[in-house]
Design goal:
It contains 3 helices and 10 strands; from the N terminus they run αβαβββββββββα. By secondary structure, it is mainly β. The protein has one domain. The radius of gyration is 22 Å and the shape is elongated.
Length: 191
């Protein structure tokens, strides 16, 4: 028989314990191993087709990866990528002479010839009832006349005593159609 004077762990202890255990098990989002033959990061600048060459994880256009909130559904769009002196990545979505949208990323180049964009990290803490953690980050690298964007993400969460989570790592490849913003005209004429 259990005595009423015996101490029990409060519910928030178990929620906090499940959150920490889940976080340790899931870890943070990690990138896949870099393939052989990637080019120097200076080759990243240029004009890219908005439609993917390599598309194993859903039909994500280049712009939908760069701007998750975008709802642009035009055909024959191109994305111009360049870097400024502070090494920020500037992306412009355009068709002919019309600029549809632009976005800037803070990030850094590393010795592996990749550009790592800043993290998208969010925590929603409502202990002991609900909690969530979301981390997404992008890696860009140049590979044989194309650019590969890798999205690494981790999402964990819990409700009362139930904890769930997943880690994903997806990559898409986009064809480079030129080095300057005007080079896309030659590409569209040759289609």
């Amino acid at each position: 028989m259990i005595s009423h004077n015996q101490r029990h762990f409060p519910i928030y202890f178990w929620v906090l314990f499940s959150f920490i255990l889940n976080f340790i098990i899931q870890g943070c989002a990690n990138y896949a191993e870099i393939p052989e033959g990637i080019k120097n990061s200076s080759y990243l600048e240029g004009v890219y087709s908005n439609e993917p060459i390599l598309n194993p994880f859903g039909n994500n256009t280049l712009w939908s990866l760069l701007d998750e909130k975008s709802d642009i559904k035009e055909d024959s769009l191109f994305v111009y990528i360049r870097f400024d002196k502070q090494r920020r990545l500037h992306a412009e979505l355009f068709k002919e002479d019309s600029l549809f949208a632009s976005k800037t990323f803070s990030g850094r180049f590393q010795s592996d010839s990749c550009y790592y964009a800043g993290r998208d990290f969010a925590i929603i803490p409502f202990f002991p009832i609900f909690y969530a953690l979301r981390e997404h980050k992008l890696r860009f690298y140049s590979y044989d006349h194309s650019m590969v964007i890798e999205l690494a993400g981790a999402t964990i969460g819990g409700y009362i005593l139930f904890a769930v989570g997943y880690i994903d790592n997806d990559a898409w490849e986009y064809k480079k159609v030129g080095n300057k913003k005007t080079d896309y005209l030659k590409f569209t004429d040759s289609r």
